[in-house]
Amino acid sequence: MRVLSCKIFFNQGNLKHVQPSVVVCQKRSRSNKDDDYQYLQRSKVPTLHFQASLPRLPIPELQKTCDRYLAAQRPLLSAQDYAKTEAIVSEFKKGEGFSLQKQLKDWDEKNKHTSYISELWFDKYLSDRVPLPINYNPQIVFVNEKKPGYGTQLIRATNMLISSLRFMKSIRAEILEPEVFHLNPKKSDTKLFRTVTRLLPSSLSWYGAYLFGAFPLDMSQYGSLFNTTRIPKINKDSLFQNEYAKHMVVMKGGNFYVFDVFDKDGNILQPADLLACLKYILDDTTPPAEHPIGVLTTENRNTWAKARQHLENIGNVDVLSLIDSGIFTLCFDDVEIAGDLYFLLRHFLHSDGQNRWFDKSFSMLITKDGYAALNFEHSWGDGVAILRYFQDMLKDSSENPRIHPDTKPSNCRPESLVRKLEFKLDDKAKDYVSQGKKNYEAFCNSLHITYIEILNHGRKDCRNFKVSPDSLMQLAFQVAFHKQVGKFVATYESSSTAAFKHGRTETLRPCTMATKTFCEAVNRSNRPSNSELAAMIKKCSEVHVTLTKEAAMGQGFDRHLFGLRRLAEQGGGKLPAIFQDPAYAAINHNILSTSTLSSPSVRAGGFGPVVKDGFGLAYSIWDESLGAVVASYPPARDGPGYIDCLRAAFDDIFEILKSSNT
Fold this sequence. Notes:
Structural class: alpha+beta
Helix content: 40-55%
Radius of gyration: 26 Å
Distance between the termini: 53 Å
Domain Choline/carnitine acyltransferase: 57-646
Protein name: Carnitine O-palmitoyltransferase 2, mitochondrial
CATH class of the largest domain: Alpha Beta
Pfam families: Carn_acyltransf
Strand order of the largest sheet: 11-7-6-8-9-10-1-16
Family: Belongs to the carnitine/choline acetyltransferase family.
Number of domains: 3
Active site: 378
């Protein structure tokens, strides 16, 4: 399990008033205590069986990091500037870099329980003071429910809640299937694999999986999916978790409601009881909150920390504790998407902030017409953990629903189970909320979101052309930016290092000399023949695949240099010249920030640019189609213009590949 910055346990004494009614529901649920209702999976291999023997995240050789860094700088710099940076790097690896590398290795040797990047990465996230929505919290939108009658707000929410609780219980009972990457699923994703690896001790189990051609992934983040909240503090936030809490937090109209979803023995309440509680909340006629406290979670973190401290000082400690410790936040939104993808992207990424608690590990958002999404806080974990929950929960709620269109709510007296939370507010607290609403409205209005869908090409076409689908997407982003702006800029692609104990992410640098050569060739008037251009595309793919493998194996340069820089900062004194070089600042000013969560379960994703003059590019690759969501801050960047260039780039690339393939 990952050690959180702040892990606190306390008794839910302020929920004791609901116990008599819970006992009534508990009696009916005892027949379900040992059946399939309580757990989503019953893996024979314990969930964390491979954790003890996972390989540790390697610290790359300093020489290789320097070489990779220079290779990433080369397409971005003029010959003169590159020569300066090359000289600085040469001095660094012989002097200060050598010393810092030794310090990093010494620290790593003394901390074998974790990775060299884990603590530094937590610190990076938790110390940043910018607001969470748009800047950090991504959205992931579920595909719509296809079965007639099951896609209503109430039915879908109840089934998703039940499946979420089953997933959570499976994790905590260690019977959720371990996360394993199978090189050849037909050979390794088998009963024999599970039997053999289960019999091996945890200290050897990873090696047994490796012999099958299977690679277990780090699951230390999974425990933080539930009952976890980021708490605002001055200068650096903390993470809070209370695994003993049994209640859900539901938001509607900016109001907060809580109710227990487990009985005193830890059993999930009956489906009809959960349906009754959620229906009671949806039917509540309380008007929208006049002073929606949730909007404070959209503020600058220091501003929110001061506001929260004031809320606690005037008597809201217990209310805030209930929100913090809840399993997750379920937000009933009083809007309809009605097929409007533009509205969907804005609503699930940021909305007006009044019916949100962006600090929660994740919030499940469901509209009146049954569209659903997750919005998740990023410091506690990365895409691997959230996507596993996303997919498993959706599959279970859709294929094995416990609530049906004809299901009637139980008579468990939901009015005695559900409690509406009331905040004590003075004029100062109200002013914080009022100012927060104004700040957030201005922030959201400054953001532009658009999207592109390529419906006639997808993963299958890329493979037929013998080109990496991810490399093709990244190449299109480069071609489009060069077509629009006429230059090459720092580009970031996130790559998971979950193959290692406490791995987080590594940066893949998709702007290479190969992509630069292709962009300059394809965007000029007297461009080469299609066969020559096709050869360039395949060269770009080869380079990209190599970079992808290196990043996944912890052999990028970004995290390594980040760790060395942090050590230099902690040591005091003057920073090494490499970290003062304008080229280092420029390559970390990621104008194209890209990430993908491609899955048949995902309708769309999205996040904001990481710099004001950048693009946030969330893309998806499906078998028959491709898509990308483009976020920007005009007038610094022109999102619609970039989309036009991106569509032209896809047309060019696929036309070149088709003509050379005939």
